[in-house]
Specification:
Layout lengths: L1 H22 L22 E5 L2 H4 L6 H9 L10 H15 L3 E5 L2 H4 L8 H16 L3 E7 L5 H5 L9 H15 L5 E6 L1 H9 L11 H25 L4 E7 L2 E4 L5 H24 L1 E2 L2 E2 L9 E5 L3 E4 L29 H11 L5 E5 L10 H17 L4 E7 L18 E4 L4 E4 L1 H13 L3
Parallel strand pairs: 1-2, 1-12, 2-3, 3-4, 4-5, 5-9, 6-10, 9-11, 11-12
Antiparallel strand pairs: 7-8, 13-14
Helix pairs in contact: 8-10, 9-10, 12-13
The chain binds beta-D-fucopyranose (FCB).
The site of beta-D-fucopyranose has 12 residues, from loops.
Length: 444
């Protein structure tokens, strides 16, 4: 008995690994063979950039500003002073020639204390939307992009299911103000990043370190998404509502190691698979979520990288990323792997709704990687469209250097560089490259 086990187990392991290697390939292209100019996009394809309120607006009092203080992080402070300079910043959108712009709404501005609403702040967001439309730029509005009022955080935020009601009421107010002009909505930005960074790694507010809480928050975020989707669609069925989902691949560091495969597949399930299954079945991480099934009109795809996963999965402190030999590490420390975008598109397509690429970009202060980053990722998008994938837009992260959460102002993702001493924005070479690409594809 023992002898046959000793023979059968390794054979089974080897067969499993061979199966996994075939089932989950990790393609790498020889980019020198590829003509990056050979792209085609349909005329209705939309070209955009994305930002988020807490990263650009400035002078916010919310869960993030409190966390910056309590953790001794770099303070977001005045950020890009976008709340005052938004008209000038919209001139940059016009200068780039974008046809779509993804922005987020800051709940703490609209409801600074429970039940007290600020009409002046609603008015500013409303003017922003009018101005975008006047510029023939489609607004894409995100309702929750990592930040919310501090009073709501104190109640437990998304860790308490009963708090979802406050979130829904806020979403309904914003929707009632803007949905006569905004057709495309994202409920929540990157729910897995929000929950894992805030509740497992402790690098985002509230700085918790608990796997159990992380799972609860993940489920509650899906509850919140479903509830908001259902409520907003019943107020106006003509809009399109989705969520912005970070799709990161977890590839085994050593493709021969059963341990690395086990870790990679488990993380992939938690990060990607379980969310997709949730939308298809209405069940997620062991819970049935009312109204979740099919609660998406599009999937927002945020793509940055793949994680090479080994035995030691970091649960705290600095994240250190491995890379393949042919890959470059970006300033953020993760590898540049444009090929992963085509895998992410395939995964997003399995949600069975159209895809909007809601984020993709690179931290690169000297702009030495970004031009190539843009060219490669757009080639991948064009190739996927050629293969028949229904991709409606591409939004580059981001318009201008801004507050990069736990990393503060160190990470520079902007097509425009921002001089923080005087708020002057200067277009980077990659900005003018993006403008040329847009110009050659958009017939105004
Ligand atoms: C994404 C976030 C976005 C920005 C980029 C670099 O995870 O959605 O706000 O910080 O990363």
């Amino acid at each position: 008995m023992l002898r046959s086990l000793l023979i059968v187990t390794p054979v089974l392991l080897v067969l499993t690994i061979l199966y996994l290697r075939r089932r989950y390939p990790e393609p790498h292209l020889d980019w020198s063979e590829i003509d990056l100019q050979s792209t085609t996009f349909p005329p209705e394809f939309l070209w955009g950039v994305a930002t988020a309120a807490h990263q650009v607006e400035g002078n916010l009092r919310n869960n993030w500003s409190s966390f910056e203080e309590s953790e001794g992080l770099e303070k977001s402070g005045i950020a890009c002073d976008h709340w005052n300079l938004w008209r000038e910043d919209y001139d940059l959108l016009t200068e780039l020639g974008v046809t779509s712009y993804r922005l987020s709404i800051e709940w703490s501005r609209l409801e600074p204390s429970p039940g007290r609403w600020d009409p002046a702040a609603f008015q500013v967001y409303s003017e922003m939307i009018d101005d975008l439309i006047r510029r023939e730029i489609r607004p894409v509005v995100t309702l929750h992009h990592f930040s919310h009022p501090e009073w709501w955080e104190k109640k437990g935020g998304f860790s308490k299911k009963e708090n979802i009601l406050d979130f829904r009421l806020y979403c309904e107010r914003v929707f009632d103000t803007l949905s006569d002009r905004v057709d495309v909505w994202c409920t929540i930005n990157e729910p897995v990043v929000f929950s894992s960074m805030g509740y497992t790694l402790g690098k985002f507010p509230p700085g918790s370190r608990s796997i159990g809480k992380t799972i609860t928050v993940m489920r509650n975020l899906m509850h919140a998404h479903a509830e908001v989707y259902y409520s907003l669609k019943s107020r106006n069925p003509d809009v399109r509502i989705g969520m912005a989902k970070n799709i990161t691949h977890f590839d085994p560091l050593r493709r021969w190691s059963p341990i690395d495969w086990a870790a990679a597949r488990a993380l992939d399930w938690l990060w990607n698979g379980s969310w997709q299954r949730g939308i298809h079945t209405g069940r997620m991480l062991g819970a049935t979520i009312p109204n979740l099934k099919n609660s998406l009109d599009f999937i927002g795809l945020n793509y940055y990288t793949h994680f090479l996963t080994g035995l030691f999965i970091p649960t705290a402190g600095e994240l250190k990323f491995a890379k393949r030999e042919n890959e470059t590490l970006t300033e953020f420390g993760y590898p540049q792997y444009a090929e992963g975008l085509s895998r992410a598109i395939r995964h997003a397509a399995a949600y069975s709704v159209p895809i909007e690429i809601t984020e993709n970009g690179v931290a690169d202060a000297s702009d030495s990687l970004r031009p190539q980053h843009l060219a490669r990722h757009l080639w991948i998008v064009s190739d996927a469209i050629r293969q028949g994938y229904d991709i409606r837009s591409y939004h580059h992260w981001t318009l201008m250097d801004n507050f990069e959460w736990a990393e503060g102002y160190q990470m520079k993702f902007g097509l425009y560089e921002v001089d923080r001493s005087n708020q002057v924005r200067i277009m980077r070479p990659s900005g003018s490259l993006y403008r040329e690409i847009i110009q050659s594809n958009v017939k105004r």
